[in-house]
């Protein structure tokens, strides 16, 4: 009998960052999860049922501490927001902010965004995807971990409705070059706008924690909006 083929190891675009949740973040995860949290499973979510209405939906891949995500949900009450991240302390902070803002148009999933997109989101169910300041994996040997790659973009194409937007931002010049190069190969995404700035011209988004950190280091900022054709 032949040996079974070993399962190929999935290349992750993230690492689970160290750090423990504060008592208030832990409490928010326990007390507010029923209101804002969505568990991961391999079934398509009924977003109309989850939010209790029909609306345009925004997916934020990697929301950090959730401050900019909550601010966007406050600014656009007519839209629904789904934030996905693997970092529990950040999710706890996001739930605290969502509770303080008393918003109903935000849900959080603590899981790998690629798996959430693959299993839980229906085709053409999103009007916008935000990928803001993802890990740049600056070392050449780690470039294969960058999330702006064909598997992610295939999923983004499928989940975005025609005319929907993919917003990307980074503060790493080498990653910006990578994004420009990769997106040129994607016939179903049209570049609508590209900005290079010093943090003073964010493209239809709020400033994020990781953006502020990059600016303190003297980095420039690159913003793109691509339209799903």
Q: Could you explain the architecture of this structure?
A:
This protein is of the alpha/beta class and 229 residues long. It has one domain (23-228): Rossmann fold (3-Layer(aba) Sandwich), CATH 3.40.50. Helix content is 34%, strand content 23%. It is built from 9 helices and 7 strands, in the order αααβαβαβαβαβαβαβ. It has a 7-stranded mixed β-sheet, with helices on both faces. Helix 7 links the parallel strand 4 (126-132) and strand 5 (160-170). The radius of gyration is 18 Å and the shape is globular.
Task: Find the CATH topology.
Answer: Rossmann fold
Unreliably modeled segments? 1-9, 13-18
CATH architecture: 3-Layer(aba) Sandwich
- The structural class is alpha/beta
Strand order of the largest sheet: 3-2-1-4-5-7-6
The Rg value, from CA coordinates, equals 18 Å
Overall 3D form = globular
Report the top-level CATH class: Alpha Beta
Going by CATH, the homologous superfamily would be Vaccinia Virus protein VP39
Number of helices: 9
Please provide the ordered H/E string of secondary-structure elements: HHHEHEHEHEHEHEHE
Quote the average pLDDT: 93
Head-to-tail CA distance between termini: 49 Å
Instruction: Tell me the count of domains.
Output: 1
Question: How many beta-strand runs?
Answer: 7
Helix content: 25-40%
């Amino acid at each position: 009998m032949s040996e079974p083929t070993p399962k190929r190891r999935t290349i992750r675009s993230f690492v689970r960052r160290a750090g423990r949740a504060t008592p208030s973040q832990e409490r928010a995860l326990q007390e507010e999860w029923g209101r804002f949290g969505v568990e991961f499973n391999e079934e398509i979510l009924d977003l109309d049922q989850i939010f209790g209405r029909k609306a345009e939906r925004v997916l934020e891949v990697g929301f950090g501490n959730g401050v900019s995500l909550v601010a966007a949900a406050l600014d656009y009450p007519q839209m629904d927001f789904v934030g996905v991240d693997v970092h529990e302390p950040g999710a706890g902070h996001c739930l605290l902010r969502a509770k303080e803002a008393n918003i109903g148009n935000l849900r959080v999933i603590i899981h790998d965004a690629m798996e959430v997109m693959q299993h839980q989101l229906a085709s053409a169910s999103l009007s916008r995807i935000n990928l803001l300041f993802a890990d740049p994996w600056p070392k050449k040997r780690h470039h294969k971990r960058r999330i702006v790659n064909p598997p992610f973009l295939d999923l983004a194409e499928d989940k975005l409705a025609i005319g929907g937007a993919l917003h990307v931002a980074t503060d790493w010049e080498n990653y910006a070059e990578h994004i420009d190069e990769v997106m040129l190969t994607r016939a179903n995404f049209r570049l609508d706008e590209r900005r290079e700035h010093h943090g003073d011209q964010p493209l239809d988004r709020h400033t994020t924690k990781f953006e502020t950190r990059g600016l303190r280091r003297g980095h420039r900022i690159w913003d793109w909006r691509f339209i799903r054709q």
